[in-house]
């Protein structure tokens, strides 16, 4: 089950990152990098929620609870994403590609752990046993 979820999380993540990156680079021409990154991250998060809930973790119940937990998780990882992006931009003299990749990698790890063991955890339990 974990291998299947990791693979699906990876595919879902790629979809979310593509959404995130396209919007990020379009917005860089209009807004500062931190604002652009925040908006693009939220768009990618919407894609990630839908695909992870329905496909990766196959969570059919508790939609309202999932939305709240997912929102709390993504608000936390959004802050980490923006901070890492900004830090890498400072350290590596405006290297937007490296900053984007480092910020995305940080978010990816935090999001899988949070979704697997907190957001969608209740849906993986059948009769008190974990279905891992």
Number of β-strand runs: 2
What is the ordering of alpha helices and beta strands? Answer: HHHHEE
Put simply, the count of helices is 4
Biggest β-sheet strands, sense, barrel: 2 strands, antiparallel
Distance between the termini: 5 Å
C-alpha Rg (nearest Å):
15 Å
Give unreliable regions as ranges: 125-132
How would you describe what is shown here?
- It is a single chain.
- Helices cover 78% and strands 3% of the residues.
- The protein has helices at residues 2-27, 33-56, 63-91, 96-119, and strands at residues 125-126, 129-130.
- 30% of the residues are buried.
- Mean pLDDT is 89; it is low at 125-132.
- It is mainly alpha-helical and 132 residues long.
- It is elongated.
- A two-stranded antiparallel sheet has the order 1-2.
- It is built from 4 helices and 2 strands; from the N terminus they run H-H-H-H-E-E.
Question: Keywords for this structure?
Answer:
132 residues; mainly alpha; 2 strands; 3% strand
What is the fold's blueprint, element by element?
Layout (H helix, E strand, L loop, with lengths): L1 H26 L5 H24 L6 H29 L4 H24 L5 E2 L2 E2 L2
Antiparallel strand pairs: 1-2
Briefly characterize the structure.
This protein has 132 residues and is mainly alpha-helical. It contains four helices and two strands. Strands 1-2 form a two-stranded antiparallel ribbon.
